[in-house]
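step=encode ok
step=design start
structure_in=
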């Protein structure tokens, strides 16, 4: 009888261990799943929270180089050898739309440093004068908040160290962040595309984008690019 009872006790203990381990495994699986789902947004939420909770103001103005020197060059062309192509995170100009509350430093690259200090040209596009697409990003609650005021026919001014450019707004578009047809980086004419998150005045990334399109009106063409 004692042997039978001991066997039953051992079996019951094993069953209890199994029942105890099973919920732990379920909890671990749930935590891993939630971690995978929330990982993409956790970083931005922590970053936004730190902006409000930190008692120290971070000075991003010392985190980049500025190669922009205003010029009054009014020539129609400029040789590529005279143009200093900007490196990533470098300010190389200014972008403004008069009377539309858009006046920002223009950087090459669209990482956190350019977008905290101004607006940035996507590194996979081109800079003014190349005769191709210039894709510029900016935050909807700071430097590109004024895009909500832009109308067809408005003039966008871009000043660089090698020349001053103007573009005429041809239209706007509201679309999703996955719409690859919203711009054409292979276009063989100079055009300016500015975009930001939508709705305006919201914090953090959204799944909608507001685009502003403009065609080149004036500014020197960069020559000797492929010689």
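sequence_out=
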């Amino acid at each position: 009888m004692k042997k039978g009872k001991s066997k039953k006790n051992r079996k019951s203990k094993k069953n209890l261990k199994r029942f105890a381990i099973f919920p732990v495994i379920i909890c671990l699986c749930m935590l891993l799943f939630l971690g995978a789902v929330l990982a993409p947004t956790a970083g931005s939420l922590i970053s936004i929270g730190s902006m409000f909770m930190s008692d120290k103001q971070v000075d991003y103005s010392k985190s980049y180089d500025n190669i922009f020197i205003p010029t009054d060059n009014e020539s129609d062309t400029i040789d590529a050898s005279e143009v200093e192509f900007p490196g990533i995170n470098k300010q190389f100009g200014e972008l403004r739309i008069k009377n539309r509350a858009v006046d920002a430093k223009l950087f090459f690259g669209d990482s956190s440093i350019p977008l905290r200090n101004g607006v940035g040209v996507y590194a996979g596009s081109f800079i003014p004068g190349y005769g191709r697409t210039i894709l510029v990003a900016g935050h909807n609650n700071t430097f590109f908040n004024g895009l909500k005021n832009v109308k067809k026919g408005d003039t966008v001014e871009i000043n660089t160290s090698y020349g001053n450019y103007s573009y005429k707004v041809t239209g706007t578009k509201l679309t999703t962040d996955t719409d690859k047809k919203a711009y054409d980086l292979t276009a063989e004419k100079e055009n300016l595309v500015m975009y930001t998150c939508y709705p305006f005045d919201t914090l953090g990334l959204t799944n909608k984008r507001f685009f502003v399109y403009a065609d080149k009106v004036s500014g020197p063409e960069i020559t000797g690019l492929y010689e």
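step=design ok
step=annotate ok -> Confidence is low (pLDDT under 50) at residues 33-56.
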